[in-house]
Amino acid sequence: MRILLVEDDDRIAQPLAEDLAHQHYVVETASDGIEGWEYAQAAEYDLILLDLMLPRLDGISLCKRLRASQYPGFILMLTAKDTTTDKVIGLDAGADDYLVKPFKRVELAARIRALLRRPSELRQAVLRQGELTLDPACHTATYAANRLNLTPKEYLILECLLHNPGQVFTRSRLLDKLWELDCESSANTVKTHMANLRQKLKGVGCKDTLIETVHGIGYRLQTSEGV
Q1: I need a surface site. Which of 38, 65, 87, 171 has the fewest CB within 10 A?
Q2: For the chain, what is the largest distance between any 2 Cα atoms, rounded to a whole number of angstroms?
Q3: pLDDT at 124
Q4: What is the 3-state composition of the chain as percent helix, strand, coil, each rounded to the nearest 5?
């Protein structure tokens, strides 16, 4: 799942982004409303965490602009304003939920999971391929009931492949989907994470052929029939 955090206070944005990354989310941050709008136009986000008071373009205006542009994902507004009027304005602008600062990170995590449970085209169903199972709502992956201890990037690679079994992903495409826009990663980074992921799958009894290397192109997850 890819999240855009639009927050101008770095004391809030940095630790929050790090915490979400540890929960297996790809997180990118923008420090003002205009930058947030530009990020939202450059990539697809499942969720936008949007501060209300922002420089250049405030959160309400950005929320309205996003909805007017047919942004289909969730918007969770973060604000220090705790009045009914402010909440109504935020929700009427197109926000899906509203969280008042200061908040505990565990509450934010619970709010995100609650959004994912809502009836939506973005709802995260449990993904299965043979004995391999991944539950996006709980951020867990298992093979033959054995828990896989994955890093955030390994988890995201596996999630991407499970969403598209049989589809070939080039290393550059995986970089675009799973790494931050300003991250200086390369195709070799994907190769390293893929090797580690395969080793962990092998450690719980998974066949080497589950994730196939398509030489000269990229990777794909074999369907049950192909394993």
Answers
A1: 38
A2: 58
A3: 54
A4: 40, 20, 35
Span 163-179, mean pLDDT?
83
pTM of the entire predicted model: 0.61
Pick the closest to residue 213 from 161, 141, 150 (CA basis): 161
Q: Which two tokens stand for residue 122?
A: 């973005």
Tell me which fold the domain 2-116 belongs to. Answer: Rossmann fold (3.40.50)
Please report the beta strands in 47-200, taking only residues with DSSP state E, as ranges in sequence order. Answer: 47-51, 74-79, 97-100, 127-129, 132-135, 140-143, 146-147, 169-170
- Does domain 127-226 sit in CATH 3.30.950.10? no
Whether the Cβ atoms of residue 44 and residue 53 lie closer than 8 Å to each other: no
Q: Which residues of 124-143 are buried (b: 16+ CB within 10 A; e: fewer)?
A: beebebbbbbbebeebebeb
Q: At what angle do helices 152-163 and 171-178 cross, to 10 degrees?
A: 110
Chain segment 11-40, per-residue pLDDT in tens: 999 999 999 988 888 899 999 999 999 999
Question: Which distant-in-sequence residues (6+ apart) come within 8 Å of 11 by Cβ?
Answer: none
Range name among 78-82, 99-103, 111-115 with the lowest pLDDT average: 78-82
**What mean pLDDT is reported for the chain?**
85
Range list of β-strands (E), the chain: 2-6, 26-30, 47-51, 74-79, 97-100, 127-129, 132-135, 140-143, 146-147, 169-170, 211-214, 218-221
Write down the residue that tokens 């450690």 correspond to: 203
Phi/psi class of residue 53: alpha, beta or left (left: φ > 0; alpha: ψ in -120 to 50)? beta
- Using DSSP's 3-state secondary structure scheme, residue 50 falls into strand
Least confident stretch, 102-116, 136-150, 204-218: 136-150
